[in-house]
What does this fold into?
Amino acid sequence: MSGGAVAGLRMDGVVVARYAETAEAAAADLDAAAAEVGGDVTAESYGTLGAQIGLGESYGRASGALRRQLADGAEALRSAAEALRQVAVRHGGQDADAAELIKRAGRLDG
It folds into this structure.
C-alpha cells in the first residue's frame, strides 16, 4: 500500500496542507469577526429606557462572551492547522524516506 495507505486509509499530503490553510483562513475570519463585536455601541445607543434597565451592561457582557468564544474558536483552528501541517510534513518525510530506500535497493540489485 503506497501513498501513506494504512488499513485502507490513504492520505494525500497536498490535501492535508490545503486543509491547514483553510483552517488558518477560518481562524483569521473569526479574529476579524471578534474585532467587530460590540464595535460602535455606546451607552447612548439604548436611550434613557435602555440605560434604566441596564441594556448597555447586558450587551457588554454578551458581546464580551461572544468575543471570547470567537477568540477560542480561532485559537482551536490555528492549533488544528498546525497539527495538520505537522502531519503533512511527517507524511512527506515518509514518502522521501521510502523513495530513498527504493533507490538504494535498485543500486544494490544492479
Observations:
- The chain has a mean pLDDT of 83.
- The longest helix spans residues 55-109.
- Residues 52 and 92 are 62 Å apart (CA to CA).
- DSSP finds three helices and no strands in the chain.
